[in-house]
Amino acid sequence: MAGSNAKRCGRYSGGSGKFIESIVKRYASLGGEILYDSSAVKVIEREGRAVGVRLESGQELNADYVVSDAYGYDTFKKLIDERHLTDRLRSMYSKPIDRMMMAPHVPFGIDMDLSQLPNAMSFFLDEPIEIAGDGCSIVNLLNYSYDGTMAPKEKIASNTINAIERVNPGITDEVEVTDVATPMTTEKFTSNGRGYGSKEDFRMKDTLRGLLNKPLVLKTLKNFSVIGHTIGGTNLYGCAAMGRNTVKKICKKEKKSFVGS
Known about the structure:
By secondary structure, the chain is an alpha+beta fold.
């Protein structure tokens, strides 16, 4: 928001809700259907081809092609049979990385004019505060742990605003709204959790896939593609481009024209 206010970056008019609504509307207009509260638990395959998905409810949906944008661990270790994994993928997803650098986000709604302050600041604290069991001496809200027993959100919010109070006295009394998003929040709402594979596991080929927005395919499972940030998609636009390129590839295989808008 700070960057948008300073005209250094933009945001979708109406926020993320309107952005999602526009995608849903366009998808529905093309005949697509979205099933809510319907988690996929398995990719159905026959004779080495993906032919649909099985939902948590037991319902099976048939398909000519299956594209997964799910979290990598769920895709490779739960949705498909492990025999389709390359040795490299099997090794990567056999053990999570030791330390996950994912920060809690603690937004405060402040009824105070802060326009005189910089858009981004780092506060070096005179005394460290505790965030999820770790000592934090700089208010960037970086958290290096990934522990299911993380401190209650109220404590995280309290410690954070108390630290900011020492730099900007009086701000605590003007807080109108508080929200805390931890790594556990991210996992709950997006199924994205602890990372797998170290930087040494990523090759130039993976980097190029991300830059060119190409999907990942498996030699032993036809008509199945994986897209998204897990396999190198960069930000929202890059992951969307991966999906678009996957559809282009399917159209080429089916000898149909790809029409975008």
